[in-house]
Amino acid sequence: MEAVLEVWQRGALPGIPALLQPVAHALLQAREEVAELEVHLNENLIWERPGGVASPGFHLQHLSGVLDRVFTYARNESLTEDQLIQLHDEDVSPNSLLTITGLVTRFNMQVDKALNQLKQTDEQTLTEFRAVGRKLLPSTVIGLLVHGAEHTMRHLGQLRVTIMILSNN
Question: Going from the N-terminus, what domains does the chain have, and what CATH number goes with each?
Answer without folding.
Answer: 1-7+22-32+52-84+100-169 (1.20.120.450)
